[in-house]
Design brief:
By secondary structure, chain A is mainly α. Chain A contains 14 helices and no strands.
Chain lengths: 301, 317
């Protein structure tokens, strides 16, 4: 899904042809013009594959404890070594990609979508509603992302749904702000007036006439959120307020023993961090190129 | 202009009161209060009278508006009250931690500025060369690297290369500056690198925009030395958006360093906030939220003052 996103947009400038050919030419075009972005997209696709095929690829079970092989250095049996419980680091990394992508896609999609609807609604209705919504958003925006997420987890308690909620909520106002500014311009378009004159309901105008036209900033925010959400999940899990043991998650793997035994068993601290960085890096590369391709003017994110 | 500043200054107070009211009522909407949490640990079901007695001790049984008015009256006298969980004065609880977080935020900002501005400028001048690509990858990597992992790597590197660990106990700067810096420089580096990434990108794009302006062409045409064009004509005009980014990030750093603090064993504001929310320690949470919001609002105010000072094109009414 990550790759067919830019495709539909990029084709607006290409010559319309057979649907399949348009698809392909857009991918080729994006790859040629934005090589770095294509590399990022490639890594994202690879990650999706790894997550989907985790049971097939992973050499060991990620939660099976093996006290015979505690803190083993990388070797032929355990390519990236084992942790303090003798669990295979590589297998845990592979399964950890599932957690990262689930939380990442879940909260980014939810946050960007709710934010987009609020932003468009706020711009469409204007007046009092707009004013109050914006003030409310301002209050949320005054808090660092991580602090808000931590507070929400502390209040709701931590399970996977609450974790996704905690990461989603701080993202909503950030997205709403950006989408609102684009939607303000669209509201003045003649076709919105026409739709109103034709007597369409508010809901229909917002969903059918305005939302499709803020797709570019929406997709940009979505890709930007994906990396942030993965980073946030890792941070929360690292603090012990995110995913719980024994589930495999990258942030969790850096917690506790990884720091304690960092000197004697550095592989425990190095590889999960590399996985987080690579994932976020790939999403950012892709998101950056997508932003350049869709909207060169939108640079402050 | 002075009228604008005065108005802008006075406008900070309604915002602060708004934040105070919001956090006050939000805390009380959230299910569970400190009394329930305290008694939850005990095996025997606490009797209703005990709970009620505890609540009245904290004044939680009185009408909300009375509690709020009392809190506001305390704030007006700069009295934050006592922590519900520990019973200690909140001012005392926060004082050292605030100093620590503030110092760390300032140091990280210095690191970020020292990295971001030179890198951003070079990257803009050498646009689309390998230098530009290296800088851009360096900065995207900065955004992608969790600062807590960078912190772990830093500690690990120090251990392996120098067989030395930074001090793990906080010493205030005024007690022993050397000890203090030896501890805080590492988290400042880890956070500063990440923080510089955004600023580097902003410097680059702002410089690119400015370098295309007519007055730069004029400066070149009249034969001005390139260095002078860059420093005096271009950089000065490109600084405004960069300053905005740096100020906003600074405001966020005050409370947002929880994870880095954990790695370096620092007892800052972030950790205290998480604990206070988990304990439903209303008074402490309220004070912390207000403090972080106040820093954010004051930084925004100072930013507006700076704009007026730096950019004479901005008119105020």
């Amino acid at each position: 899904m990550a790759i067919n996103v830019p495709v539909e947009i990029a084709t607006t400038e290409a010559v319309p042809r057979e649907p399949r050919a348009r698809w392909l030419s857009a991918v080729v075009g994006f790859t040629r013009r934005r090589t770095l972005g294509a590399v990022g997209a490639g890594v994202v696709v690879l990650m999706l594959l790894v997550a989907a095929l985790a049971p097939v690829i992973a050499p060991y079970d990620p939660v099976t404890v093996d006290f015979g092989a505690m803190l083993a250095a990388p070797n032929a049996k355990h390519w990236l070594g084992t942790d303090a419980f003798g669990r295979d680091v590589l297998s845990r990394l592979i399964y950890g990609s599932r957690t990262a992508l689930l939380v990442g896609f879940g909260s980014a999609l939810l946050g960007a979508t709710v934010g987009a609807i609020l932003g468009v609604g706020s711009a469409y209705f204007g007046g009092r509603i707009d004013l109050y919504l914006q003030r409310l958003m301002d209050v949320f925006l005054a808090f660092p992302l991580i602090i808000l997420a931590l507070a929400i987890v502390a209040i709701l308690g931590n399970n996977l749904q609450n974790l996704i909620m905690a990461i989603t909520i701080p993202m909503i106002p950030r997205c709403a702000l950006v989408i609102r500014s684009s939607a303000l311009a669209i509201r003045e378009m003649p076709y919105v007036d026409a739709a109103r004159a034709a007597g369409f309901k508010h809901g229909r105008i917002i969903l059918r006439h305005m939302l499709p036209n803020v797709m570019a900033p929406y997709l940009i925010m979505l890709t930007a959120f994906l990396g942030q959400a993965i980073l946030l999940e890792a941070s929360l899990s690292f603090l012990g307020l995110g995913v719980q043991e024994p589930t495999a998650a990258w942030g969790l793997m850096l917690r506790g023993a990884a720091v304690e035994f960092a000197e004697t068993a550095p592989w425990m601290a190095v590889f999960p961090g590399l996985a987080i960085s690579l994932a976020v890096f790939a999403f950012n590369l892709f998101g950056d190129s997508l932003r350049d391709a869709l909207d060169p003017k939108l640079r402050t994110l | 202009m002075w009228r604008y500043f005065l108005k802008r200054f006075l406008l900070m107070f309604p915002t602060l009161i708004g934040v105070a009211a919001l956090i006050f009522f939000l805390m009380r909407v959230v299910p569970g209060d400190i009394v329930e949490l305290r008694f939850a640990g005990e095996s025997s079901a606490a009797s209703k009278e005990n709970l009620a007695q505890e609540r009245s001790r904290f004044g939680l049984d009185r009408p909300l508006w009375k509690q709020f008015a009392e809190w506001m009256w305390g704030l007006a006298r700069l009295d934050f009250g006592k922590s519900m969980w520990t019973g200690a004065s909140i001012t005392d609880e926060i004082k050292l931690r605030f100093a620590l977080s503030l110092q760390l935020a300032v140091m990280a900002t210095i690191v970020a500025v020292l990295l971001a501005i030179p890198l951003g400028v070079i990257s803009a001048i050498k646009q689309d060369t390998w230098v530009d690509y290296v800088v851009r990858i360096f900065s995207i990597a900065g955004i992608a690297t969790p600062s807590f992992w960078l912190g772990i790597l830093l500690i690990l590197g120090l251990l392996i290369v120098f067989k030395w660990l930074p001090p793990m106990v906080y010493t205030p700067f005024w007690v022993n500056p050397w000890q203090n810096l030896a501890q805080l420089i590492w988290p400042a580096l880890a956070v500063g690198y990440r923080y510089s990434a955004v600023a580097t990108r902003m410097t680059r794009s702002a410089m690119l925009e400015v370098l295309r302006e007519d007055y730069i062409r004029t400066a070149r045409a009249k034969g001005l030395v390139e260095n002078l064009i860059l420093s005096r004509h271009a950089l000065k005009n490109a600084m405004l958006p960069v300053l905005t980014v740096i100020c906003l990030e600074f405001a966020f750093l005050m409370g947002g360093l929880v994870v880095t603090e954990q790695v370096f064993n620092l007892n800052g504001l972030g950790l205290l906030f998480v604990q206070s929310v988990a304990h439903r320690d209303y008074t402490l949470t309220q004070a912390l939220v207000l403090l972080v919001a106040a820093v954010f609002i004051v930084v925004n105010f100072l930013m507006d003052l700076m704009y007026a000072w730096l950019d004479p094109r901005i008119h105020y009414r």
